[in-house]
TrEMBL record, chain B:
It comes from the Eukaryota. This is Multifunctional methyltransferase subunit TRM112-like protein. It holds the Pfam family Trm112p. GO terms for molecular function: protein heterodimerization activity. One of its GO terms (biological process) is tRNA methylation. InterPro entries: Trm112, Trm112-like. Belongs to the TRM112 family.
Length: 369, 126
């Protein structure tokens, strides 16, 4: 990755360095989304971040499985020794973030990508995250204040403010790296946790990219996808499920009322253990199963096998069920699935906020009807 | 409830029902909506439909004139744009907003409210 600053104005067609932040376990999905973009080049992947270069014309990419997308300002190995006193550590960090760092060029690229024509200073707020052993040296709020003061002197195109910022400048100091970026998306999560997870699950149907190594063929137009516990409809509304027939079932009318009804999303008020659908009807199942937090232990142990049984009944032989479930109950789910004739093909361990979750990809036995 | 939805519904989940298909429609309020036409999508949907059930459903909501009673009456339907657009209209643009669905074996009625069929069963039905 280039580190030098230049004074030339960025042009359409230039390549710009960006990065995504992503939740644990989401790497294969984010990579697969990025690699759908022509001319994109993935430079590096570390825990929680994927760095890539793309033409400015494609830089509006917003992977649905990523948390945020940022213009890369700085990324380098952590050079601060573990027991460095805080004042010295701060001086070292300050030098890292000012000497030769392409702040001005990054701001110009940010303006280009956000269509910001104004030449006035961009109002920015430092969002500092410190992880690992560096938390013993740096306190995020104090570090943000100190860095704002020193960067104010060296970065002419930014004005650091506490409120009313146009953009967040993310600074992440970990044990291994220091990474600084200028956010292209707003908020902590560009799409919300449920939507991001739903996208990852839906991508298990749409992508046959080598990295994922899933299935022989991707999703076809007009295929029928069922979410038997759809809630507010995050899964049926996943963007990669276009041109399919999506059926969302839930037994809570309040949830269904929130579910956005697209022209191809069909909603039913029904019980997932008694689906009002014909046998062998559905091409694929996508479902965020209950994690058991709101159920009694006995109730939960009865519910899941009943739901699995119905899933298998309505699913066509040889087709896929993509289920999100609590990682701690992995064995229970696998047993329920096997009892119904589902074969486990692959799993992805992800974090759903603080919950340890897993995406399970099952295949219905071809001979089972 | 679109007629596409109806084509997939069954009341076999009721205790004692062996097939439960197709459900009979009594529509009190039918609405027409606009939905983008997609040739390929419509062709694929037709391949999944139970045509007889679709025609009966279309007749019950007053839109049977738009489509033939037998799919075999149309040659090379996948290349017939006019036919495909009519199917698209019936399947996706005709919505039953208020009404009932009736199990063909037990006569049990399921309400349709605000376009969503309520297929929840009572304790004694499962």
């Amino acid at each position: 990755m280039t580190d030098h600053d230049t004074l030339t104005q960025p042009q359409e067609g230039d390549f710009v360095s960006l990065y995504c932040t992503l939740g644990r376990g989401m790497d294969p999905f984010v990579k697969a989304e990025l690699l759908q973009v022509e001319q994109i080049k993935i430079l590096k992947a570390i825990e929680g971040k994927i760095f890539f270069e793309t033409p400015t014309s494609s830089a509006n990419i917003r992977p649905t499985t990523a948390e945020r997308v940022l213009v890369l300002i700085y990324h380098n190995k952590q050079q601060i020794e573990p027991n460095t006193p805080a004042p010295l550590a701060f001086t070292q960090l300050q030098k890292m973030l000012t000497n030769g760092v392409p702040w001005e060029r990054s701001v110009r690229y940010w303006r280009l990508l956000k269509d910001e024509e104004s030449e006035e200073k961009v109002l920015a707020r430092l969002n500092v995250k410190v992880s690992g052993g560096k938390r013993k040296i740096f306190k995020p709020e104090r570090l943000a204040g100190s860095l704002s003061k020193c960067l104010r002197l060296s970065v002419q195109s930014l004005e650091f403010v506490a409120r009313g910022a146009q953009v967040s400048i993310d600074v992440h100091v970990s044990d291994a790296f220091v990474t600084v970026g200028m956010a292209l998306t707003s908020g902590t999560l560009q799409f919300g946790l449920r939507s991001t997870t739903a996208s990852a699950m839906a991508m298990c149907l749409t992508l046959s990219h080598d990295n994922l190594r899933f299935f022989e063929r991707p999703l076809s137009t007009g295929e029928v996808i069922l979410d038997p516990m759809c809630g507010k409809g995050s899964i049926p509304n996943a963007k990669c499920l276009l041109r399919t027939v999506k059926i969302g079932v839930d037994n809570d009318p309040a949830q269904l009322a929130v579910a956005k009804v697209s022209n191809n999303t069909l909603l039913l008020l029904a019980d997932a253990t008694k689906l009002p659908l014909r046998r062998d009807l559905v091409d694929h199942i996508l479902c965020d199963l209950p994690f058991g937090l709101k159920y009694s232990k006995d109730g939960f142990r009865t519910l899941i096998p009943d739901v699995m049984s119905e899933i298998v009944r309505v699913l066509k032989p040889g087709r896929r069920a993509i289920l999100l479930f609590a990682r701690s109950e992995r064995q229970f789910l696998k047993e329920c699935a096997e009892n119904c004739g589902l074969k486990l093909m692959r799993t992805f361990e992800i974090m759903l906020g603080v919950l340890e979750a897993e995406i399970f990809v099952f295949l219905k036995n071809n001979e089972l009807t | 409830m679109k007629l596409l939805t109806h084509n997939m519904l069954s009341s076999r989940c009721i205790k004692g029902v062996s097939v439960g298909y197709p459900l009979k429609i009594s529509a009190k309020n039918v609405r027409l909506v606009n939905c983008d036409f997609d040739t390929d999508f419509t062709v694929r949907i037709i391949q999944k439909l139970d045509w007889n059930a679709l025609w009966e459903a279309a007749e019950s909501v007053g839109h049977a004139d738009d489509i033939p009673k037998n799919l075999s009456d149309i040659d090379d339907y996948d290349k017939n744009d006019e036919f495909l657009r009519k199917v698209h209209h019936v399947v996706l643009e005709v919505e039953v907003i208020e009404g009932e669905l009736e199990c063909p074996e037990t006569g049990r009625k399921f309400p349709i409210e605000d376009g969503v069929p309520n297929m929840l069963l009572n304790e004694d039905e499962v």
